[in-house]
Amino acid sequence: MKKRNQDNKKKFKLFDPYRDGKGVYEAESRKPTLKFFFVLLWRKLSQLFQLNLLMLVKIIPLLVIAGIYLLGSKTPIVTDSIYIPLSGVGKILPTASLTTELDLASVHMQYPVLNTWMNVLIIVMVLFLALTWGWQSVGATYVLRGLFRGDAVFVFSDFFYAIKKNFKQAFFMGLLDFIISAVLIIDFIFFYYRTGTSFGIDMMYFMIFLMGIIYIMMRFYLYHLLITFELKNFKIVKNAFIFSILGIKRNIMALLGFVLLLALHIFLIIIFIPIGISIPIVLPFVYILAIFGFISTYAAYPIIDRYMIQPYEASQKANSAETNEEENKEITE
Asked: What total number of domains does the chain contain?
């Protein structure tokens, strides 16, 4: 394992990045407690707003796809697999109990009807998201790490610097991350609409849900490990899984933070939409992605620091001390 060199960064000047150059506050304790989280969050809020603008590129394709599904024409389909055989039996031997069962099984969902241009647009959006997923994640993670550590952060230039520096590895890690995330989401939806039909389906739904939670926690670490250490992608995924267990307390707190933030917005929507105020719908796009990233960084980086960075730096110091001692002996002799 090798720590990445902290080489000089060539700044990409955009929107006067020198406004972002606040560094470490020397006189304060930076122990990553819950209290310091809110202190640091407030201090870095303007930079998080800037970062959120860059992170919106990641969700624009998702919004386009969601718009096509929600606003397009739809047709009802039956989701219960037992409906067709029940319907056939009902035509041969109609009974009152069978009719009741058929009514329960005939509950349907609205399925979108897509034309050619809609399908093409969805494919383009998915491809764009898959191909840029890793680059966007690396850029955002690099900025978030700097904000947490108290580095002098230049949001726009640091974002693109990280992409340039980790271009190839970030692409393949992002592709792997995107595929795993997509498979888990599709499986979750598939089994969700089939729960209650059998014990096996219910168990699969529970297992997919559990795997999804674990992978969300693993994602806290994936890109931090990529930008901090020179590791192969397999080792990054392996270490991310280990850290999802070692840092379980901080990871659960981060997940709880996600839930509370989403619950707050849902509450605001319930309160304000009926009286004609739509700000709660737009407000999350101003900051929520960056805040989620900041929460996950605050949970993950101290674990990486404890189990990888500090031992690495200690070994480097020990090796340096041994080298100096040997050189001194040679000079004395």
From this structure: 2
Give pLDDT, residue 65: 85
For residue 144, the model assigns a pLDDT of 98
The helix, strand and coil proportions of the chain, stated in percent and rounded to the nearest 5, come to: 75, 5, 20
d(CA 75, CA 72): 10
In terms of domains, do 65 and 79 share one?
A: no
Full residue range of the structural domain in which residue 258 is found: 54-73+115-316
Q: Residue 190 falls within a domain, yes or no?
A: yes
Answer whether residue 83 is part of any domain.
Answer: yes
Q: What is the pTM of this model?
A: 0.81
What pLDDT sits at residue 11? 47
Kindly state whether residues 103 and 60 are assigned to the same domain. no
Do 275 and 145 lie in a common domain?
yes
Residue 131 lies in a domain: yes
To the nearest 10 degrees (0 to 180), the angle between helices 233-246 and 167-192 is 60
Q: Quickly list DSSP for 55-107.
A: HHHHHHHHHHHHHHHHHS-EEEEE--TTHHHHHHHHHHS--HHHHHHHHHHT-
Query: Block means of pLDDT (10 residues each) for the chain, length 333 residues?
Result: 60 45 57 93 95 93 84 59 52 56 51 77 93 96 96 95 97 97 92 83 93 97 96 96 96 96 91 85 89 97 95 83 64 59
Cα 13 to Cα 18, 137, 261: the distances in Å are 9, 21, 33
